[in-house]
Amino acid sequence: MNTRTSPFWRTPMAVSDTPMHLTQGAHVGISVSDLDASIAFYSALTGREPVAQGTMNSEPFGRTQGLPNAKLRYATINLDGLGIDLIQFQDPVGERTNGKANRPGSMHLCFKVDDFDAVYRRMKDAGYDFLGDDYTFIAGEVTPEAALGTKVAYFNDPDGTNLEIIEPKGGFAN
Questions:
Q1: What is the pTM of this model?
Q2: Residue 91: strand pairing partners
């Protein structure tokens, strides 16, 4: 059994070494400051409209998130096999995080593309601001070796959430 400390709960968390076999993602939740702006951004990015929108005001849900209450607006955009839940907390309103990749707890969402160069060019033409130049993995940077030649580019959503496009080579990204 491993013991890990979670700053969220502030108590040691005992984690069994027993495999849980969680192998499929259902959705990713992204906290946003302006739900309408985020819906517009992610709808343009994915070409999909929300499949669900609504509000929630729940003390039990709030407590599961370390909050006294959770009054929020949400929208879900479905991709093939993964939902993107956009969540605007209205009470209590959250503070903006700094989404730098090296900060524990930060995350990024990666979109797999079949023709990296065409998608990258369309996004640049549409005004997406990439975080540096696109990049191709070279020997020694990634494993397995089948990932060599994988192209990636990083950008942010309106709240600074790190996003990525990737054209995987070999079996690198599922």
A1: 0.84
A2: 71
